[in-house]
Amino acid sequence: MALNGHLIVFGNEKGGTGKSTTAMHIAIALAASGKKVAALDLDSRQKSLARYLENRRTYATRHELDLPHPAVLVVDGEDEAALDALLAEKRAEADVVIVDTPGRDSLLGRRAMAQADTLVTPINDSFVDLDLLGEVDGDSFKIKKPSFYSELVWDARKARAKADGGSVDWVVLRNRLAQLEARNMRRVGDALGELSRRIGFRVIPGLSERVIYRELFPRGLTLLDLAALGETSLSHVAARQELREMVSGLALPAWERSAAAKDAQAA
Fold first, then answer.
1. Is residue 41 within 8 Å of residue 240, measured between CB atoms?
2. Which residues contact 85 (CB under 8 A, 6 or more apart)?
3. Alpha helices in the chain (DSSP H)
4. Crossing angle of helices 148-164/183-199, nearest 10°?
5. 3-class DSSP state for residue 120?
6. Residue-wise pLDDT tens for the chain (267 aa)?
7. pTM metric for this prediction
8. Which of 143, 168, 169, 230: disulfide with 134, CB 3.0–4.6 Å?
9. Domains of the chain, CATH where assigned
10. Cα separation of 160 and 79, whole Å?
11. Are 45 and 57 within 8 A, CB to CB?
């Protein structure tokens, strides 16, 4: 089968970075733009992405809402060949396949990363999370050396190049950015910029720290759904703009084609 679908893998071995929330919002943004989206949840214990989409289906059915709802499968076990076959199947069927990996090292998570077209690593805007990517000197706040996760991604990129000559576009998302700039934010940004030049990832802004994200999960909703439900405020409008900028920053072929088509229709 031809592998047509763009594979986006969300990977981070640290919990609490908004990985599943970000994956959900990007999945719904792409689905709402008319793309066929498939989702795989490799965390068979927590199943955060699968639960989010399950909540969405339940809420939409209960309130008779017509909401885009990507299909999701929870993948259990450590069968790499089975995962390969499933990814090939979904990529042949969908425009975009989104994979949410566990917040820990896992065999299937590594396997998915090695096949990714886009690897998204959300981190909170702190040196605690930055330590996942690179060790920072306590006096100068300069990067001393890449950390274990950066080495893991390097291995995944080599595996992808060896397998089919393809490349993995690694994007680091700065989630939970403070609303007001602070010295710590600048230092984290400087360290990320230095590390990105050394090991080759792109840095884009993610989702700010907002209470609304915690309230959306039980209903399975995203920021894109609030206007249809009549729950719009200035804060929500700003958050939706952040989401659009985040998706645009990923530079996904499916999203760029949709934007180009809309521009052509408006012309």
1. no
2. none
3. 19-32, 48-62, 80-93, 107-113, 127-130, 148-164, 183-199, 212-216, 234-250, 253-266
4. 40
5. strand
6. 445 899 999 999 888 888 999 999 999 999 999 999 999 999 999 999 999 999 999 999 999 999 999 999 999 989 999 999 999 999 999 999 999 999 899 999 999 999 999 999 999 888 888 999 999 988 888 899 999 999 999 999 999 999 899 999 999 999 876 654 577 788 888 999 999 999 999 999 888 777 777 788 999 999 888 766 676 676 677 778 888 899 999 999 866 655 545 544 444
7. 0.90
8. 143
9. 6-266 (3.40.50.300)
10. 18
11. no
Q: Which of 100, 97, 125, 104 is nearest to 21 (CA)?
A: 100
Tokens of 212: 């609304």
Rounded CA separation 70/124 (Å): 27
In this structure, what are the phi and psi dihedrals at residue 124, rounded to the nearest 5 degrees? -70, 155
With beta carbons less than 8 A apart as the criterion, state whether 160 and 111 touch.
Answer: no
**1: which 2 tokens?**
């089968």
* Contact indicator for 210, 226 with CB cutoff of 8 Å: no
DSSP class of residue 267 equals -
Count of helices and strands (H, E) across the chain = 10, 9
48-62 and 19-32 helices, crossing angle to 10°: 50
Whole-number Å distance between alpha carbons of 142 and 2: 44
Cα 68 to Cα 56: distance, rounded to the nearest angstrom: 9
